[in-house]
Amino acid sequence: MESRIFFDEDLYKREIRKVALSISGFIFLYLLLFLFTIAVAIFAALAGIVLAMGYPHLITIAVGISLALFGLFIVYFMIKFLFVKNDVTDLYRIEISRDEEPELFNLIEDIARQVDTESPGKVYLSHRVNASVFYNSFSFWTLLFPVKKNLEIGLGLFNTLNVSELSSIIAHEFGHFSQRSMKFGPYIYHANRVIYNMLYQNEAWETNVNNIGNQYWAFKIFSSLSLYYAQFVKGVMQKVYEFINVRYMSLSRQMEFHADSIAVGIFGSEAFKKAMLKVEWTDVAMNETLDALTSVSDENLKSKNLFNCQQYVIKELAVLNDVKFTEGTIEIKTEGENKDRYRPRVKIEDQWASHPLMSERLENAEALNISQPVNGALCWTLLARQNITQERLTEHVYTIANVSASGELTGEEFGRRYTQKLDLYSYPKVYNGYYNNRSIESF
Q: Measured in Å, how far apart are the chain's first and last C-alpha atoms?
């Protein structure tokens, strides 16, 4: 069956227009709701003043204060998201400089030139099996004054990818740099932040409302009206959230195909496909590695280099699953080698998915059918201080995880323990891995 190109330029532009209209609609609706709230607050305050002055009495004054408080609190409810501190720091990232890793920076800047986009503001390394672009912070100022995006590269990728495969992943991320639709990201973020704050971050607000309402019976008017009004606003925002994000997720999937196409155009279909297939496998291996290291930390043991441990896990999983491991990397040719053979065959489109299915991304790359020269050197050759960087990140992961073990777990001891675990929890190959990591219970 002939492969299909999933990226559709016309559909992409239509999705951008839909998202632009939905964001404009959210801003208009929020302003309308805010002005309505101001009007209600003014009316409530005036009604309270008229009541207290027209019929001066302790009870009418209390009711007047109650109405004024109602107006004050519903206005605050509409703007309290402005006072929430927004910290997007990822503690697992460490920043690196050109002086530390010049060859890696040369590669990054060369890819940026080929994609025809700006280089990242800062480059970070992590232990993860991933690469991503991100902002240091999201503030309302970023909507008016664009800030540079940053790049995170997970060294967990380096144990299976060659330079061309890693380059294709970075090119995919830089493909997002070049997308005009990326500019919607901060707006979507802030729209969701406003909505999330109104829907779920109300504990302090509701506590204050109830505490005041319990002070005097007349103040129950204030607390009841405030809570009912908040419920009304939350009901509206829930519908707005669904409306905006369904459209943005649809655009996001087209953005992924667009970025895939950029990466394939520069580094070829094969490099991109192999990178995608290896990433799933490598991520499983990293999770297995972290689980194994967590289990021995209780014995006051820790590894100096988790990436060496990850490489051992990759080799063992390759043997267990009849996957070829050669010249420091694995050879995976089909998506089926990454998954159980008993996976569901029915495809259901998930309207909330931000990324397309792996099978669709692979098919898209295959259909583009672009050949490019391959740099088969392993990614570790890009690092001038390979062992120092590996050990620094390993220690950083332990520090963030608050693990203070002092004993050293050697590579040999890690291998022995991991192999022992595989032998304990694996079944004969005749079962095709069906029962691996499953709990069997009598019934």
A: 44
